[in-house]
Protein backbone atom coordinates (compact mmCIF):
# COMPACT_ATOMS: atom_id res chain seq x y z
CA UNK A 1 0.00 0.00 0.00
CA UNK A 2 1.29 3.43 -0.98
CA UNK A 3 1.65 6.42 1.33
CA UNK A 4 2.72 10.05 1.08
CA UNK A 5 5.23 11.45 3.59
CA UNK A 6 5.38 15.23 4.12
CA UNK A 7 8.35 16.49 6.15
CA UNK A 8 7.50 20.00 7.27
CA UNK A 9 11.09 20.78 8.25
CA UNK A 10 12.13 20.29 4.62
CA UNK A 11 9.25 22.22 3.06
CA UNK A 12 10.38 25.76 2.25
CA UNK A 13 7.12 27.00 0.77
CA UNK A 14 8.33 27.10 -2.83
CA UNK A 15 4.91 25.93 -4.12
CA UNK A 16 6.71 23.57 -6.50
CA UNK A 17 4.32 20.71 -5.72
CA UNK A 18 1.27 22.88 -6.39
CA UNK A 19 2.74 24.04 -9.70
CA UNK A 20 3.72 20.47 -10.62
CA UNK A 21 0.12 19.34 -10.14
CA UNK A 22 -1.11 22.09 -12.45
CA UNK A 23 1.58 21.20 -14.99
CA UNK A 24 0.50 17.55 -15.02
CA UNK A 25 -3.27 17.96 -15.01
CA UNK A 26 -4.34 21.30 -16.52
CA UNK A 27 -5.34 20.60 -20.10
CA UNK A 28 -4.48 16.91 -19.79
CA UNK A 29 -6.90 14.02 -19.48
CA UNK A 30 -5.58 10.80 -17.92
CA UNK A 31 -8.28 8.18 -18.52
CA UNK A 32 -9.67 6.34 -16.74
CA UNK A 33 -8.58 8.36 -13.72
CA UNK A 34 -9.15 12.03 -14.47
CA UNK A 35 -10.41 14.62 -16.91
CA UNK A 36 -8.43 17.88 -17.24
CA UNK A 37 -8.10 20.14 -14.22
CA UNK A 38 -9.32 23.70 -14.84
CA UNK A 39 -6.80 26.53 -15.10
CA UNK A 40 -8.23 28.25 -12.03
CA UNK A 41 -10.33 27.37 -9.01
CA UNK A 42 -8.82 23.97 -8.27
CA UNK A 43 -5.61 22.87 -6.55
CA UNK A 44 -5.54 19.10 -6.29
CA UNK A 45 -2.23 19.58 -4.50
CA UNK A 46 -2.38 22.90 -2.71
CA UNK A 47 -0.01 24.55 -0.30
CA UNK A 48 -1.74 26.03 2.72
CA UNK A 49 -0.04 29.10 4.17
CA UNK A 50 -0.51 30.18 7.79
CA UNK A 51 1.10 33.06 9.69
CA UNK A 52 2.09 32.43 13.31
CA UNK A 53 2.67 35.11 15.91
CA UNK A 54 2.65 38.87 15.79
CA UNK A 55 5.16 41.41 14.48
CA UNK A 56 8.10 41.34 14.91
CA UNK A 57 8.07 37.65 15.90
CA UNK A 58 6.32 35.94 13.02
CA UNK A 59 6.86 32.63 11.26
CA UNK A 60 5.05 31.23 8.23
CA UNK A 61 3.89 27.62 8.02
CA UNK A 62 3.54 25.98 4.60
CA UNK A 63 1.54 22.75 4.44
CA UNK A 64 1.24 20.65 1.26
CA UNK A 65 -2.33 19.38 1.20
CA UNK A 66 -3.46 16.78 -1.38
CA UNK A 67 -6.30 14.29 -1.20
CA UNK A 68 -5.47 12.18 1.86
CA UNK A 69 -6.28 8.87 0.06
CA UNK A 70 -8.01 7.65 3.19
CA UNK A 71 -8.49 4.04 4.17
CA UNK A 72 -12.07 5.00 5.05
CA UNK A 73 -12.81 7.77 2.53
CA UNK A 74 -15.78 9.92 3.47
CA UNK A 75 -16.37 10.75 -0.20
CA UNK A 76 -17.02 7.11 -1.09
CA UNK A 77 -19.10 6.55 2.00
CA UNK A 78 -21.33 9.42 0.88
CA UNK A 79 -21.52 8.28 -2.75
CA UNK A 80 -20.24 4.66 -2.93
CA UNK A 81 -20.72 4.35 -6.66
CA UNK A 82 -18.62 7.45 -7.36
CA UNK A 83 -15.26 5.71 -7.32
CA UNK A 84 -13.02 3.15 -5.69
CA UNK A 85 -9.91 2.58 -3.64
CA UNK A 86 -7.16 0.86 -5.60
CA UNK A 87 -5.16 -2.06 -4.23
CA UNK A 88 -2.19 0.29 -3.83
CA UNK A 89 -4.29 2.64 -1.64
CA UNK A 90 -4.97 5.49 -4.07
CA UNK A 91 -8.57 6.73 -3.98
CA UNK A 92 -10.04 7.45 -7.41
CA UNK A 93 -13.21 9.31 -8.33
CA UNK A 94 -14.46 7.89 -11.61
CA UNK A 95 -15.01 10.88 -13.95
CA UNK A 96 -18.03 9.20 -15.51
CA UNK A 97 -19.70 8.31 -12.22
CA UNK A 98 -19.31 11.64 -10.41
CA UNK A 99 -21.19 13.64 -13.02
CA UNK A 100 -23.90 15.77 -11.37
CA UNK A 101 -22.94 14.40 -7.91
CA UNK A 102 -21.96 17.71 -6.31
CA UNK A 103 -22.78 16.43 -2.82
CA UNK A 104 -19.53 14.48 -2.81
CA UNK A 105 -17.61 17.76 -2.56
CA UNK A 106 -19.10 18.56 0.84
CA UNK A 107 -18.52 15.02 2.10
CA UNK A 108 -14.73 15.44 2.25
CA UNK A 109 -13.60 16.79 5.66
CA UNK A 110 -10.27 17.82 4.10
CA UNK A 111 -11.88 20.07 1.45
CA UNK A 112 -9.78 18.21 -1.11
CA UNK A 113 -12.57 17.66 -3.66
CA UNK A 114 -13.47 20.36 -6.18
CA UNK A 115 -16.44 20.96 -8.46
CA UNK A 116 -15.86 21.50 -12.17
CA UNK A 117 -18.78 23.65 -13.29
CA UNK A 118 -18.04 23.23 -16.98
CA UNK A 119 -17.95 19.43 -16.88
CA UNK A 120 -20.39 19.09 -13.93
CA UNK A 121 -18.11 16.61 -12.19
CA UNK A 122 -16.25 16.35 -8.89
CA UNK A 123 -12.44 16.21 -9.18
CA UNK A 124 -9.45 15.70 -6.92
CA UNK A 125 -5.89 14.44 -6.66
CA UNK A 126 -5.48 10.97 -8.15
CA UNK A 127 -2.01 10.46 -6.71
CA UNK A 128 -0.99 10.67 -10.37
CA UNK A 129 -2.23 7.10 -10.72
CA UNK A 130 -1.35 7.14 -14.43
CA UNK A 131 2.31 7.79 -13.54
CA UNK A 132 2.30 5.25 -10.70
CA UNK A 133 0.98 2.66 -13.16
CA UNK A 134 4.07 3.37 -15.28
CA UNK A 135 6.41 2.89 -12.32
CA UNK A 136 6.96 6.62 -11.83
CA UNK A 137 6.43 9.01 -8.92
CA UNK A 138 3.50 11.41 -8.63
CA UNK A 139 4.56 14.61 -10.36
CA UNK A 140 4.41 16.69 -7.16
CA UNK A 141 6.83 14.29 -5.46
CA UNK A 142 9.12 14.10 -8.47
CA UNK A 143 9.46 17.88 -8.61
CA UNK A 144 9.89 18.52 -4.87
CA UNK A 145 13.30 20.20 -4.71
CA UNK A 146 13.95 19.60 -1.00
CA UNK A 147 12.81 16.01 -0.52
CA UNK A 148 10.05 17.25 1.76
CA UNK A 149 7.45 15.28 -0.18
CA UNK A 150 7.91 11.55 -0.69
CA UNK A 151 5.83 8.61 -1.90
CA UNK A 152 6.25 4.88 -1.70
CA UNK A 153 5.37 1.64 0.00
CA UNK A 154 4.13 1.81 3.57
CA UNK A 155 6.79 -0.64 4.76
CA UNK A 156 9.58 1.58 3.44
CA UNK A 157 8.45 4.43 5.70
CA UNK A 158 7.48 2.37 8.76
CA UNK A 159 9.87 4.16 11.14
CA UNK A 160 8.78 7.60 9.99
CA UNK A 161 5.10 6.71 10.09
CA UNK A 162 5.53 5.61 13.71
CA UNK A 163 6.42 9.18 14.70
CA UNK A 164 4.27 11.00 12.15
CA UNK A 165 0.88 12.65 12.50
CA UNK A 166 -2.18 12.77 10.27
CA UNK A 167 -4.59 15.62 9.70
CA UNK A 168 -8.04 15.59 11.34
CA UNK A 169 -7.69 12.15 12.95
CA UNK A 170 -11.06 12.67 14.67
CA UNK A 171 -12.74 12.42 11.27
CA UNK A 172 -12.18 8.66 11.35
CA UNK A 173 -11.12 8.63 7.69
CA UNK A 174 -7.69 7.12 8.44
CA UNK A 175 -5.66 9.20 5.95
CA UNK A 176 -2.56 7.84 4.23
CA UNK A 177 -0.73 11.17 4.01
CA UNK A 178 1.64 11.36 6.99
CA UNK A 179 3.20 14.57 8.33
CA UNK A 180 6.55 14.81 10.09
CA UNK A 181 7.76 17.76 12.18
CA UNK A 182 4.57 19.78 12.24
CA UNK A 183 5.51 23.22 13.64
CA UNK A 184 2.70 23.49 16.23
CA UNK A 185 2.56 26.79 18.17
CA UNK A 186 5.21 29.04 19.69
CA UNK A 187 5.63 31.53 22.53
CA UNK A 188 8.24 34.26 22.17
CA UNK A 189 9.30 37.52 23.76
CA UNK A 190 12.17 39.90 24.50
CA UNK A 191 13.99 40.72 27.74
CA UNK A 192 15.68 44.08 28.33
CA UNK A 193 17.06 46.53 30.89
CA UNK A 194 15.04 49.78 30.75
CA UNK A 195 17.64 51.71 32.79
CA UNK A 196 20.51 50.89 30.45
CA UNK A 197 18.16 50.75 27.44
CA UNK A 198 19.86 47.50 26.42
CA UNK A 199 18.69 43.97 25.78
CA UNK A 200 19.64 41.29 28.30
CA UNK A 201 21.46 38.35 26.79
CA UNK A 202 21.60 35.01 28.60
CA UNK A 203 18.56 35.52 30.83
CA UNK A 204 17.01 32.22 31.92
CA UNK A 205 13.42 31.82 30.75
CA UNK A 206 11.31 28.93 32.03
CA UNK A 207 7.94 27.85 30.68
CA UNK A 208 5.73 25.52 32.69
CA UNK A 209 3.28 23.37 30.75
CA UNK A 210 -0.17 22.20 31.78
CA UNK A 211 0.59 19.23 33.99
CA UNK A 212 3.81 20.63 35.45
CA UNK A 213 6.49 19.93 32.83
CA UNK A 214 8.97 22.80 32.44
CA UNK A 215 11.10 23.91 29.49
CA UNK A 216 14.03 26.26 29.93
CA UNK A 217 15.89 28.43 27.45
CA UNK A 218 18.10 31.54 27.42
CA UNK A 219 17.68 34.85 25.66
CA UNK A 220 19.87 35.20 22.58
CA UNK A 221 22.11 38.08 21.50
CA UNK A 222 19.01 40.06 20.55
CA UNK A 223 17.43 39.50 23.96
CA UNK A 224 14.84 37.22 22.37
CA UNK A 225 13.50 33.90 23.61
CA UNK A 226 11.45 31.29 21.75
CA UNK A 227 9.55 28.18 22.82
CA UNK A 228 8.45 26.15 19.80
CA UNK A 229 6.27 23.13 19.03
CA UNK A 230 3.82 23.84 21.84
CA UNK A 231 0.30 22.53 22.20
CA UNK A 232 -2.64 24.79 23.01
CA UNK A 233 -3.23 25.34 26.73
CA UNK A 234 -2.44 27.47 29.76
CA UNK A 235 1.19 28.27 30.57
CA UNK A 236 3.28 29.94 33.28
CA UNK A 237 6.43 31.92 32.43
CA UNK A 238 9.31 33.02 34.66
CA UNK A 239 12.42 35.06 33.79
CA UNK A 240 15.61 35.35 35.83
CA UNK A 241 18.89 37.13 35.15
CA UNK A 242 21.86 37.73 37.41
CA UNK A 243 21.62 41.09 39.13
CA UNK A 244 17.93 41.59 38.31
CA UNK A 245 14.65 40.97 40.12
CA UNK A 246 12.81 37.97 38.58
CA UNK A 247 9.63 38.42 36.57
CA UNK A 248 6.69 36.04 36.30
CA UNK A 249 3.68 35.90 33.99
CA UNK A 250 0.82 33.58 34.84
CA UNK A 251 -2.28 32.48 33.00
CA UNK A 252 -0.88 32.59 29.48
CA UNK A 253 -3.61 31.11 27.29
CA UNK A 254 -2.13 29.73 24.10
CA UNK A 255 -4.59 29.07 21.27
CA UNK A 256 -2.48 30.59 18.50
CA UNK A 257 1.24 31.35 18.39
CA UNK A 258 1.94 34.36 20.56
CA UNK A 259 4.52 37.13 20.81
CA UNK A 260 4.38 38.10 24.48
CA UNK A 261 6.22 41.36 23.83
CA UNK A 262 9.01 42.81 25.91
CA UNK A 263 9.82 42.09 29.56
CA UNK A 264 11.71 44.86 31.39
CA UNK A 265 13.89 43.59 34.25
CA UNK A 266 14.87 45.91 37.06
CA UNK A 267 17.86 45.76 39.36
CA UNK A 268 16.99 45.58 43.07
CA UNK A 269 16.54 49.08 44.46
CA UNK A 270 16.07 50.68 41.03
CA UNK A 271 13.15 53.07 40.66
TrEMBL record:
InterPro entries membership: 4Fe4S_Fe-S-bd (IPR017896), ET_IronSulfur_Cluster-Binding (IPR050954), Ig-like_fold (IPR013783)
Any Pfam family: CarboxypepD_reg
Coiled coil start-end: none
Domain of life: Bacteria
One Gene Ontology term of the molecular function aspect: 4 iron, 4 sulfur cluster binding
Alphabetically ordered keywords of this record: 4Fe-4S, Iron, Iron-sulfur, Metal-binding
Residue intervals of the 4Fe-4S ferredoxin-type domain: 2-31
PANTHER family hit by this protein: PROTEIN NRFC (PTHR43177), PROTEIN NRFC HOMOLOG (PTHR43177:SF3)
Name the UniProt record assigns to this protein: 4Fe-4S ferredoxin-type domain-containing protein
Natural source organism: Desulfitobacterium hafniense DP7
